[in-house]
């Protein structure tokens, strides 16, 4: 079974609009972490935001926020006031267990976001 | 700090050849990992290490070897390259207890 599902292969959004990228996950481990990474056309993987399963509040980092709905097992990325530089591939990922000794990050297949001027 | 560096950036191999992909980090990160990225499949973990002298297998370890003799370096060896190993390879590192991994720029490998 897919552990991370990203159902939007591609999205087109007008510049300055907000955008939500969907991610659902599947785990039976009560302790886990959820991540979003950005991969621009240049190819590098850029860490954007992290949410721990026990975190009470949704994570925010500048224009990025993670809409964490634990009961629905969803971890959507919200980008406010989109910019042309936001055009990239976005990956959702999960680490089951704690942040000690467990290196397995499971990635989704990604969403290609294109910002239209 | 250079962060995570990978060499080479590009490599073409013939089937059956061997080579080593280099990865180094200067952030004193104990944890290091190798991933491969294939079109439409996201990244998959090949091998990882939680410290010098300690390595373990990830999701797709077959055909690859690793060793970790120092904190800084984590090379990935392809013993006998196959076309199925054509991919982009990423090395990553992080501190224990910290969530975020820092990725290198990647190595694009083609096996003909």
Question: What's the short version?
Answer:
Chain A is mainly beta. Chain A is built from no helices and 12 strands.
Structure, described:
The complex is a heterodimer of chains A (117) and B (112). Chain A is mostly beta strands. Chain A contains no helices and twelve strands. Chain A has strands spanning 4-5, 10-14, 19-21, 24-25, 32-39, 46-52, 60-61, 64-69, 74-79, 88-96, 105-107, 111-116. In chain A, strands 2, 5, 6, 10, 11 and 12 form a six-stranded mixed sheet that branches. Chain A starts with a strand and ends with a strand. With 112 residues, chain B is mostly beta strands. Chain B is built from no helices and eleven strands. In chain B, the strands form two sheets. In chain B, strands 2, 4, 5, 6, 9, 10 and 11 form a seven-stranded mixed sheet that branches. Chain B has a four-stranded antiparallel sheet with strand order 1-3-8-7, with no helix packed on it. The termini of chain B are far apart. The mean pLDDT of chain B is 94. The A-B interface holds A 4, 33, 35, 37, 43-47, 50, 52, 91, 93, 95, 99-101, 103-105, 107-110 and B 31, 33, 35, 40-45, 48, 50, 56, 58-59, 88, 90, 92, 96-103, 105-106.
Content of β-strand of chain A = over 45%
> Which consecutive residue ranges of chain A, at least 5 long each, have pLDDT under 50?
none
The low-confidence runs of chain B, each spanning 5 or more residues with pLDDT under 50, are none
Radius of gyration of chain B: 13 Å
What is the number of beta strands of chain B?
Answer: 11
* Gyration radius over CA of chain A: 14 Å
């Amino acid at each position: 079974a897919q552990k991370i599902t990203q159902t939007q292969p591609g999205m087109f959004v007008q510049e300055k609009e907000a955008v939500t990228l969907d991610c659902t996950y599947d785990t039976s481990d009560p302790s886990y972490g959820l991540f979003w990474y950005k991969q621009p056309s240049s190819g590098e993987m850029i860490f954007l935001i992290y949410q721990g399963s026990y975190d009470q509040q949704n994570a925010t980092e500048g224009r990025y926020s993670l809409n964490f709905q634990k009961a629905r097992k969803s971890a959507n990325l919200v980008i406010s006031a989109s910019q042309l530089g936001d055009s990239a591939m976005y990956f959702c990922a999960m680490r089951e267990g704690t942040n000690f000794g467990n290196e397995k990050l499971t990635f989704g297949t990604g969403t290609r976001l294109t910002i239209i001027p | 700090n250079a962060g995570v560096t990978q060499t080479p950036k590009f490599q073409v191999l013939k089937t059956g050849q061997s080579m080593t992909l280099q990865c180094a980090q200067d952030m004193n990160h104990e944890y290091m990992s190798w991933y491969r990225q294939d079109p439409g499949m996201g990244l998959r973990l090949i091998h990882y290490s939680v410290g010098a002298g300690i390595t373990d297998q990830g999701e797709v370890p077959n055909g690859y070897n690793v060793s970790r003799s120092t904190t800084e370096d984590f090379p990935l060896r392809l013993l006998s390259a196959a076309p199925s190993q054509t991919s982009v390879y990423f090395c990553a590192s992080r501190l224990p207890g910290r969530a975020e991994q820092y990725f290198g720029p990647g190595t694009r490998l083609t096996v003909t």
